[in-house]
Amino acid sequence: MKPLGDSNTHFWLAQRMARITDTDLVTAMARAEITQADWAEMITACRGCDWTKGCQRWLARHAGEHDQDIPQDCENHDRFQRLKDVLDEGTK
């Protein structure tokens, strides 16, 4: 098992991924779609991801953009997609 990456670095990578993909974490928490424990699990998953350098390049390339598709290589792809889908359903 490889060592986990720096928690602060991966917290911000996950935050940036959420922002660029329009995954509204604040609304998700307010609607109880995600808990603090869920968020901590996402950060831990990010810390163990093998795609960190690719993620950083992807985030840099899309800085300032919104509503981008969540990259398949993202360790939290399925979690972010589920949140987006649930939140999109809630606005219909």
Characterization of the model:
The chain has 92 residues and is mostly helical. The protein has one domain. Helices cover 61% and strands 0% of the residues. The chain has five helices and no strands. The chain is globular. The N and C termini lie far apart (43 Å). The relative contact order is 0.21. The model has no long low-confidence stretch (mean pLDDT 95).
- How does the major sheet shape up? none
Per DSSP E runs of 2 or more residues, the count of β-strands stands at: 0
Mean of residue pLDDT values: 95
User: How many separate domains make up the residues?
Assistant: 1
Portion of residues in helices? 55-70%
Radius of gyration, Cα only, in angstroms? 13 Å
How far the N terminus sits from the C terminus, by CA atoms, comes to 43 Å
Shape: globular
Helix/strand structural class: mainly alpha
- Give the low-pLDDT segments: none
Topology:
Elements: H1 7-20, H2 25-30, H3 36-47, H4 52-61, H5 77-90
Helix pairs in contact: 1-3
Please give a handful of descriptors for the protein shown:
single chain; 92 residues; mainly alpha; 5 helices; globular
